């Protein structure tokens, strides 16, 4: 399936839930396949991710109508537990905590900021492709990215380095 | 000092944020659904743009016309392809593909003809036709129409010719008139020579293949 990892990663970050990402990506791909039977190729990627992104926003809009507010808790539970192998357990724990911090800071961003960070930093896409996916001018992509980074920095600074395990 | 500060969270995200991998079953599920939808696109529940039905009926009309035209051209014009011709063509293609052109590689019919002696219950006519422009490359055993047959390999410029030879069945009409057919761009020539049935197949033009058959006929073959 072409571009599926990028599409799923984007949907998973926007929806913050495995099942919903699964459903929305599946729907979006079917929608895309109805228009084109071949989704391979460099040009198909931003086009396809744009469809996935819009499907995510549609889904979120529908959700908001029903429960008005999204809960953020599921995100911490879904990350797989760190596997302690031959490496230094303390280093692994530290790494795990750093990942948790970065993940929750990214998840706390508004979707508009989150999506540009995911596309830029995780999928390493060009400003032009991000502009096509999100449907905004390239200049807006750049300013939104810089705003998102500033917000991320704040979130990461205010977060205490050692989080309490969440079992509320 | 705006840029370095900006870079800090970006680097952290790049290094530490989770890249969510799609569950392995997702791709299969999408593919299964795409396949299930493909034969009857109108059954889907998704709302279509209004022009969709238009395009669709146009496409269906086109597909119908095309298949009618194809059926007519197959039934009315082209006689059904001889299954043996298909086999001969397939053997020819396989011999070129599988790097198994010859079991015995020699340009001398004194080497190739005896090689068949212990392997077939008949002795195929083998001639070196280098003087006529068809140097012998070698021979191999092949299997056609329920018979183990002799396959002789000749070359003509850049073309490879497979010449399949096996005894004609007892009741077969012995009219030796060569018959040309064409399967997927390959020319096939079927005729009787030296009391056996012969099939020559190559990507040469039909006329060239006939010239080759005449050269085979004229040689004593031993």
3D structure, described in words:
The complex is a heterodimer of chains A (168) and B (222). Chain A folds into two domains: 1-75, Rna Polymerase Sigma Factor, Chain: A (Orthogonal Bundle); 87-160, Orthogonal Bundle (Arc Repressor Mutant, subunit A). Chain A has helices spanning 4-15, 18-35, 44-67, 74-78, 89-108, 111-122, 127-134, 138-158. In chain A, helix 1 packs across helix 2, helix 1 runs antiparallel to helix 6 (111-122) and helix 6 (111-122) crosses helix 8 (138-158). Chain A is globular and about 50 Å long. Chain A has eight helices and no strands. Chain B is of the alpha+beta class and 222 residues long. Chain B folds into two domains: 19-77, no CATH class; 83-218, Phosphorylase Kinase, domain 1 (2-Layer Sandwich), CATH 3.30.200. Chain B is 42% helix and 23% strand. Chain B is built from six helices and seven strands. In chain B, a hairpin with a 2-residue loop joins strand 6 (186-193) and strand 7. The longest helix of chain B is centred in the N-terminal third of the chain and has 27 residues, at 51-77. Chain B is elongated and about 85 Å long. Chain A binds chain B through residues 1, 4-5, 7-9, 12-13, 18, 21-22, 25-26, 29-31, 33-34, 79, 95, 98-99, 101-103, 105-106, 117, 120-122, 146, 149-150, 152-153, 156, and chain B through 5-10, 12-14, 16-23, 26-27, 29-31, 33-34, 37, 41, 44, 46.
Explain the layout of strands and helices.
The complex is a heterodimer of chains A (168) and B (222).
Chain A: H1 4-15, H2 18-35, H3 44-67, H4 74-78, H5 89-108, H6 111-122, H7 127-134, H8 138-158
Chain B: H1 2-16, H2 24-37, H3 51-77, H4 83-97, E1 104-105, H5 109-117, E2 136-144, E3 147-156, E4 159-167, E5 179-183, E6 186-193, E7 196-202, H6 206-218
Antiparallel strand pairs in B: 1-2, 2-3, 3-4, 4-7, 5-6, 6-7
């Amino acid at each position: 399936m072409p571009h599926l990892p990028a599409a799923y990663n984007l949907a998973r970050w926007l929806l913050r839930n495995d099942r919903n990402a699964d459903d929305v990506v599946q729907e979006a791909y079917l929608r895309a396949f109805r228009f084109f039977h071949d989704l391979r190729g460099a040009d198909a990627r931003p086009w396809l991710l744009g469809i996935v992104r819009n499907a995510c926003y549609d889904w979120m809009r529908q959700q908001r109508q029903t429960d008005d507010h999204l809960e953020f808790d599921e995100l911490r539970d879904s990350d797989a537990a760190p596997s302690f192998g031959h490496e230094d357990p303390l280093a692994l724990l530290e790494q795990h905590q750093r990942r948790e911090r970065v993940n929750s800071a990214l998840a706390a961003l508004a979707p508009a900021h989150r999506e540009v960070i995911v596309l830029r930093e995780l999928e390493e896409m060009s400003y032009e492709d991000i502009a096509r996916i999100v449907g905004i001018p390239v200049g807006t992509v750049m300013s939104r990215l810089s705003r998102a980074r500033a917000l991320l920095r704040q979130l990461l600074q205010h977060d205490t380095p050692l989080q309490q395990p969440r079992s509320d | 000092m705006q840029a370095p500060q900006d870079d800090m969270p970006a680097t952290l995200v790049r290094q530490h944020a989770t890249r969510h991998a799609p569950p392995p079953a997702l791709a299969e599920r999408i593919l299964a659904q795409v396949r299930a939808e493909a034969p009857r696109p109108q059954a889907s529940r998704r709302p279509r743009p209004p022009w969709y039905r238009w395009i669709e009926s146009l496409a269906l009309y086109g597909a119908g016309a095309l298949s009618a035209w194809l059926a007519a051209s197959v039934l009315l014009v082209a006689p059904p392809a001889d299954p043996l011709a298909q086999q001969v063509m397939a053997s020819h293609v396989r011999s070129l593909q599988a790097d198994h052109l010859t079991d015995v590689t020699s340009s001398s019919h004194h080497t190739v003809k005896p090689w068949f002696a212990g392997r077939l219950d008949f002795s195929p006519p083998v001639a070196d036709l280098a003087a006529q422009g068809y140097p012998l490359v070698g021979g191999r055993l092949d299997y056609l129409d329920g018979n183990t047959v002799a396959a002789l390999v000749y070359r003509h410029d850049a073309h490879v010719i497979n010449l399949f030879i096996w005894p004609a069945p007892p009741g077969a009409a012995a009219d030796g008139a060569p018959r040309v057919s064409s399967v997927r761009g390959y020319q096939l020539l079927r005729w009787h020579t030296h009391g056996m049935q012969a099939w020559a197949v190559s990507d040469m033009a039909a006329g060239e293949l006939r010239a080759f058959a005449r050269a085979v006929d004229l040689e004593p073959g031993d």
